[in-house]
Here is the input.
Amino acid sequence: MDFGRLPDLRYVDFRLPPAHPDTARLLARTPPPAAPRL
Here is the structure.
């Protein structure tokens, strides 16, 4: 597994509800998950 491609969740405030604008903004900045390499 390529852990270098995982989104950085250190700055995500998990206390915010999923519908919160800041949560949507942070999720929009995270790159899509990398396809598994076989």
Notes: Residues 21-29 form the longest helix (9 residues). The radius of gyration is 12 Å. The chain has a mean pLDDT of 63. Residues 3 and 34 are 10 Å apart (CA to CA).
